[in-house]
Write a structure and sequence with these properties.
single chain, mainly beta, 18-stranded antiparallel β-barrel
Length: 424
């Protein structure tokens, strides 16, 4: 079980030896996604498993809210600390007689990036989190996250790039919007990936391979363990300059293997094509495709259309609204192959120089390949105030829940949050 973490340490060590830079570190470092992912679409099953429910971040990059980091020559470090106090009226996500509790979250982490040459860059993050339930309604648990990425540009010829990375997390819970049964069971999730991209004039071609695994530490949940092999090729052609209009296409093959339940092994093939671009105050993308999954040891198949759409609208510099919708096939952690339909709306309104109002609404519907249907929802509304470039205080309300064919996994929960964030 330590092998995934050792992979991350090896990547970070390689990055230090190479002495290279990463993309900008956000206010609150999150699991890194590949810097070279060309389509930037969430239609495929390559996202980290754990996506914690928390307030959305600002949708516009304002220099005032951007940490500067600690600089030591070409090396930059970004320390982060966050404390959050939450009142939760149903922390156990129970559908019968829920018990309320106060929850404390402590987060600490470091982000690193460095650039020694124009052609070699690297970045790395580590985060540690501890969740404490004051009344013991649910057991306390730890969360570890580590990720790293090495990027080589203009290799042998101009426009040829390579990327290598790894994302690792170990936690004691899963997220409702991923439509997993909340087991409060400790598990590890790891994804190692490599990407190659070549850009020539308006055409960009890329390929990607990723190996992922999910490992439950509790023996009785070991049948839910899975390994995933992902291969993907992409093509992007800029029809108009300056990101105004581009055509993209992707083809992906995902093989999901269950070490303890080989009869549930399956392949999923997905093809997608669409357009993206910018027009005035709109930033948009839309794609349509087809996906088919089939068992490796049985004849059962599942196929259908996949789609994604995204619109970001900024009527003025103080306001931003984003609408996202998608339908895709995913290899679920506990549910096997499934069809996921997701709809999300986020909004951000800067009311004062230092504060902004944010809101979010989202729905995820899961129609499993085997099992029952889940529909999860979440809604947030809150206010965030930045005292300085490095420190902020947030207060927000969240309502979340899930409906399902099986009554035992239905629930609703209301949460009131107060959090303090420091990001140098």
């Amino acid at each position: 079980m330590v092998k995934p973490f050792l992979r991350v340490l090896s990547i970070v060590g390689l990055a230090f030896v190479a002495t290279a830079v990463a993309q900008d570190t956000p206010d609150e470092p999150e699991p890194l996604t590949p810097v070279l992912r060309p389509t930037e679409q969430p239609i495929f099953a390559n996202d980290p498993v754990e996506l914690p429910l928390r307030a959305p971040e600002p949708r516009f990059p304002e220099e005032y809210f951007k940490p500067e980091g600690l600089k030591f020559g070409t090396l930059e470090m970004y320390p982060t600390f966050k404390y959050e106090l939450t009142y939760d009226d149903n922390p156990a996500r129970s559908h019968l007689r829920p018990k309320a509790d106060f929850v404390e979250d402590f987060f600490g982490g470091w982000g690193f990036k460095q650039e020694a040459t124009p052609n070699i860059s690297w970045r790395a993050n580590y985060q540690f989190g501890y969740r404490d339930y004051a009344r013991g309604v649910v057991d306390n648990y730890l969360t570890h996250r580590a990720d790293g990425e090495l990027v080589l540009t203009d290799v042998l010829t101009q426009g040829l790039e390579f990327g290598f990375g790894d994302n690792f997390s170990q936690s004691g819970n899963t997220d409702v919007l991923e439509a997993n049964l909340l087991q409060f069971a400790r598990y590890e999730n790891n994804q190692a990936y490599s990407v190659v991209r070549y850009q020539f004039n308006r055409l960009t071609l890329s390929g990607r391979y990723a190996y992922g695994l999910v490992d439950y530490l509790r023996q009785q949940l070991s049948p839910a363990d899975s390994n995933t092999h992902l291969g993907q090729v992409d093509a992007v052609y800029d029809l108009l300059p300056e990101n105004r209009l581009a055509f993209f296409s992707s083809y992906q093959i995902v093989r999901t293997l269950r070490p303890h339940q080989t009869d549930q092994d399956f392949d999923a093939h997905t093809a997608l094509a669409g357009i993206r671009g910018e027009y005035g105050k709109l930033d948009y993308s839309a794609g349509l495709g087809w996906s088919k999954s089939f068992g490796l040891q049985h004849d059962q198949q599942n196929e259908g259309p996949v789609a994604q759409a995204r619109v970001l609208y900024r009527p003025q510099e103080r306001m931003a609204f984003e609408l996202e919708a998608s339908r895709r096939f995913v290899p679920g952690v506990l549910t096997g192959a499934s069809t996921e339909t997701r709809l999300a709306l986020t909004g951000d309104v800067r009311l004062t120089e230092h504060g902004h109002l944010f809101l979010r609404g989202g729905m995820t519907d899961i129609d499993p390949y085997k099992g029952n249907r889940f529909t999860a929802f979440v809604g947030d509304v809150g206010y965030r105030y930045h005292f300085t470039r490095f420190a902020a205080l947030s207060a927000f309300y969240t309502r979340t829940g899930r409906t399902a064919d099986v009554p035992d996994v239905r629930f609703t929960a209301n949460q009131a949050h107060l959090s303090f964030t420091f990001a140098w």
